[in-house]
């Protein structure tokens, strides 16, 4: 399937998101270019959006809907190191698209929040992990979460692209991001109910681009 067909499927199921079609495709193109250039995705959010960040990593770092078989030469290199372990690895490992959820590093986060400025915790991680060709996916239902905005500022300064995932309203994040995908809702839980199918669509598109697929 052409990866862009996933957008048609999303909009058929959620017609209220049709007005975001171009933004979803633009966000996909940014991530596709990043991964094609050996970049990675950094993701951050608060509360339910932090859970969404972890969810996205799970869909990108292993098979989502389709098998992601490893390259034959890579499997042979592992078997050359140890034939038994190499075979097990070759049979079970799956291709991954590198992604890091910034809410998942408790020791680093608590140390930084205790020693420095708590609102800069995500910014510190973007400062340490981020590089040019990487992408920062900033999830904020309001679009005005200060810790997300600080992290986006660092990302932009590093030459990274920033994708915002927000509610319907204009926000500081939508002003700053290279592209913003908006729910059509204003209430937090309703916005989050749109965010999940949006990022599932993006993950499916990326999987089909880099690993093929027939679903």
From TrEMBL:
This is Phosphoheptose isomerase. SUPFAM superfamilies: SIS domain. It comes from [Ruminococcus] torques. GO terms for biological process: carbohydrate derivative metabolic process. Residues 31-215 form the SIS domain. InterPro entries: GmhA/DiaA (IPR035461), SIS_dom (IPR001347), SIS_dom_sf (IPR046348), SIS_GmhA/DiaA_subfam (IPR050099). PROSITE patterns: SIS. Its EC number is 5.3.1.28. The keyword Isomerase applies. One of its GO terms (molecular function) is carbohydrate derivative binding. Keywords: Isomerase.
